[in-house]
Amino acid sequence: MAPITMVEGRRISLSNLDKVLYPETGFTKGEVLHYYATVAGSLLAHVHDRPVSFLRYPDGPDGQLFFTKNPPPGTPAWVPTTPVPRSDDPAAEQIVVADLPSLMWAANLVVEFHTPQWTVGSPAVADRLVFDLDPGPPATVVECCAAALWLRGRLAADGLEAYAKTSGSKGLHLAVSVEPTASDRVSAYAKALAQEAERELPGLVVHRMAKALRPGKVFVDHSQNAAAKTTAAPYTLRARARPTVSAPVSWQEVEACRTPADLVFLAGDIPPRLARDGDLLAPLTDPGRAGRLPGGTPP
């Protein structure tokens, strides 16, 4: 029988704590739960008021992986949900990870956390702009850093401040806090910048997903700004061979990156980084730091 744990007054059944989820390092489910409890304050700030989608990997990254937006069967009544109507299901709802109990309940399912660029009550009105920089081998995160630095400067020219985090896989994510703006408009702006990056850096960047175009280059994926798309949340563990994290990084670290290993962070690396640097993405959660897209007042 799974042990019952009380988390801030909520009863949570935690199962299979000794199960090894990451065989390469021996990282167990219990360690996954401990990680999320340790970084909860920072992670919760970034998923606050956002519907969460889960990439579940209950048997580890080598087992079955499945993506779900709907609340899983057996979701406790106290776990918050929000209506997120879809064309295939007008009554659809999604989980909102609002506090430590709902975070630990979700973590017990063994999930990656993914969120859209908009908040509850404002679907298709984005307050984030994101780029997912994905290297096509033999390119690596080193080339992603070069593309990220160009995008940072280009965004700054438009009065927008970009922040970086690792994807937790092979690439890099850029995020910008923006005044609430229609997702379609944010998407169009992001696509235009990706196209401009390709024109300015033709040997480094592509803005289209076609695999034939990508070897040795960085795909600047602007599509995650669409209202229906999601991005891996800051501090989420990823379903990879090792317990890698989508970890915030400083621009100094981006500039200094010389090998892929320079920007790989495992679960155990994150608490010391938070203790030393705080949350490097904290400005994204401050509405006062939001920028305005060029071209007029947001709708």
TrEMBL record:
Location of the region described as Disordered in the Swiss-Prot/TrEMBL record: 278-299
Record keywords:
Ligase
Question: Which InterPro entries does the annotation name?
Answer: LigD_pol_dom (IPR014145), MtLigD_Pol-like (IPR033649), NHEJ_LigD (IPR052171)
| Superkingdom | Bacteria
Q: Which Gene3D superfamilies match?
A: DNA primase, PRIM domain
Q: Which Pfam families match?
A: LigD_Prim-Pol
> MF terms per GO, please?
DNA ligase (ATP) activity
Span of domain DNA ligase D polymerase: 28-280
Q: State its Enzyme Commission number(s).
A: 6.5.1.1
Q: Name the PANTHER family for this protein.
A: BIFUNCTIONAL NON-HOMOLOGOUS END JOINING PROTEIN LIGD
Q: Which NCBIfam families match?
A: ligD_pol
**What protein does this entry describe?**
Non-homologous end-joining DNA ligase
Q: Species name for this entry?
A: Streptomyces goshikiensis
Its gene name is: ligD
